[in-house]
Write a structure and sequence with these properties.
Pfam families: LpoB (PF13036). The chain is of the alpha/beta class. It is about 35% helix and about 25% strand. Helix 2 packs parallel to helix 4.
């Protein structure tokens, strides 16, 4: 059979397969059950529990009673075997804490960019000196939030079990004392079913 005659059916089959695909929007809060890997539902469960527990902690309620302390959220350490975007976990937690109105934040992830802007304002000659931001006036964080995400995966035949544990802590940078610590555990099991069984 000539090569051209083979190409046409293959191209038509490819168009038929891709032509039927459609994209649909879903509920971002719906439970995601595609597989046992860390997913959006896990991120939402972890962040909601941790923020709720932190805000209702007696120590944190005492700390925030007379004002809005400044804190920063350090990168969450991923101790699982999976590639997990822990920055999303950090962002979700810090967003919910800011929305609570009980904290103020410094963003340590942009320190290099801030330093570059200070240098530009001070040394470029393009910024009116009276309008430039003076160095040494930023407010330092009093508290640091940090944590770990660990996981254990096991497989037995067609059954896969995935366990995650997320630990979150808040430290007083002045005293070095841990004022809050809690953890959230998630277990997901998936059993592969074979057709006809």
């Amino acid at each position: 059979m000539p090569l051209k005659a083979l190409c046409l059916p293959v191209a038509l089959a490819a168009l038929t397969i891709t032509g039927c695909a459609s994209v649909q929007y879903g509920d971002a809060r719906a439970v995601e059950t595609v597989n046992t890997d860390f997913g959006s539902t896990d991120l939402q469960l972890i962040s909601a529990k941790m923020v709720d527990d932190l805000l209702n902690s007696p120590a944190v309620m005492n700390i925030t009673r007379d004002g809005r302390p400044v804190l920063f959220v350090d990168a969450i350490r991923n101790k699982t075997a999976e590639h997990i975007d822990t920055e999303s976990v950090t962002d979700t937690i810090s967003t919910q804490l800011i929305k609570s109105g009980r904290f103020r934040f410094v963003d340590m992830s942009v320190v290099a960019e801030v330093a570059r802007q200070f240098d530009y304002q001070r040394n470029s000659g393009l910024v009116d000196e009276r309008q430039s931001v003076k160095m040494g006036q930023q407010i330092g964080a009093r508290y640091m939030i940090y944590g770990n995400l660990s996981g254990i995966a096991k497989q037995d035949g067609s059954t896969r079990d995935q366990y995650y544990k997320f630990t979150l802590k808040m430290m007083d940078l002045k005293t070095g004392l841990v004022e809050f610590q809690d953890e959230k555990e998630i277990r997901k099991t998936r059993e592969r079913r074979w057709f006809g069984l």
